[in-house]
Specification:
alpha/beta, 434 Repressor (Amino-terminal Domain), Rossmann fold, 3 domains, six-stranded mixed β-sheet, 16% strand
Length: 343
């Protein structure tokens, strides 16, 4: 068919389906049931015929760009994990991801508003730090009726849809794993960001630890180390050795667990035998590469990204038939236990 403009009718003939089915696959038309087999046949025919959708024409017809904005900092390992889930969910659901870099000021979010008003994106997903609740940004989202999902942010607000990790449950699971068949209660090592207020995620983790200790009738031991002074963890190990305390630790962040590995090596101690440690997150996804392997609670940022896309598309679909905006929704995602030899 070289030299001839390929149309949706050509795709329909090649796929053995009606033109309305091709349109439904391309535009995500609601109310027209398309089986997985027919969808795959249409996509295969599009590839074989090198058929490309005119995005601007489709946007004028459907009012959709079939693109979502992902807002975050690419130097953040967690944002990259989130993007993995966003991309996979968007491919599955017929959407594209537009990456928008996170700047240092509010003007970087203003770009997101402009993209939506220009119909270049149908909605926005952002990775925010736990505790993020910008009232001004929430007001703009509501004012422009923008489909929006915050990952990690707005945990205490009913104005914004959020996808959140269950940090309380993750620490409970970790403590149960650490205490199974063992008499010792771990010390809780909290790496703290300097001068940053304690957010809801850290409060939930600490609450889970304190409640666990209370249930066991044990005295809690909480060690707080500022992140820039993480090397001081070596002093904690030396002090616990001198005091005859069990060298058993649950670290809130991966950074703390890695510093325990370093300190143990410097003190000629063996992880898993002399020092037992577990991390309540797996920020850098290196637990299986450590020797011995580190036991972690894997905070599921990839799965959180997939869920964020699903929640966003529900908002987009709902906004086409409802006028009310700002529906409240919170989605809590459980962490996954990955066991190693570090305990």
């Amino acid at each position: 068919m070289t030299g001839k403009r390929i149309t949706s009718m050509d795709v329909a003939r090649r796929a053995g389906v009606s033109r309305s089915v091709v349109s439904a696959v391309i535009n995500g038309t609601q109310g027209i049931g398309v089986s997985l087999a027919k969808r795959e046949a249409v996509l295969k025919a599009m590839r074989e015929l090198n058929y490309h959708v005119d995005a601007s024409a489709r946007a004028m017809k459907t009012g959709r760009s079939h693109c979502v904005a992902a807002f975050g900092d690419t130097s953040n390992a967690l944002f990259l994990q989130l993007l993995e889930g966003l991309q996979q969910a968007c491919v599955r659901l017929g959407y594209h991801v537009l990456l928008v870099g996170q700047g240092s000021g509010r003007e970087s979010r203003e770009e997101l508003i402009a993209l939506y008003l220009q119909r270049r994106v149908d909605g926005i997903i952002s990775l925010d730090h736990p505790g993020y609740e910008d009232k001004a940004w929430a007001n703009q989202v509501e004012q422009h009726r923008i489909p929006y999902v915050s990952v990690e942010g707005y945990a205490g607000s009913d104005e914004i849809c959020s996808v959140l990790a269950d940090y309380y449950g993750s620490v409970k699971t970790a403590l149960q794993y650490l205490s199974t068949g063992k008499p010792d209660i771990p010390s809780y090592l909290r790496i703290a960001a300097s001068e940053a207020p304690v957010n809801w995620a850290e409060k939930a983790r600490l609450q889970a630890y304190l409640e666990f200790c209370a249930g066991k009738g044990a005295e809690p031991v909480v060690e707080v180390v500022e992140s820039q002074y993480a090397a001081r963890i070596r002093d904690i190990l030396k002090r616990d050795i001198a005091a005859g305390r069990p060298l058993l630790y649950l670290s809130n962040w991966m950074d703390g667990a890695l510093e325990i590995y370093r300190a143990a090596a410097e003190l000629d101690l063996k992880i898993g035998r002399d020092v037992r440690v577990m991390s309540a997150d797996n920020t850098y996804r290196v637990s299986r590469q450590l020797v011995p392997r580190l036991s972690v609670m894997a905070v599921p940022y990839k799965e959180m990204g997939e869920k964020a896309v699903e929640v966003l598309l529900e908002q987009i679909d709902r906004s086409e038939v409802e006028t009310e905006a700002g529906a409240s929704c919170k989605h809590w995602i459980e962490a996954q236990l990955i066991s190693g030899e570090s305990v």
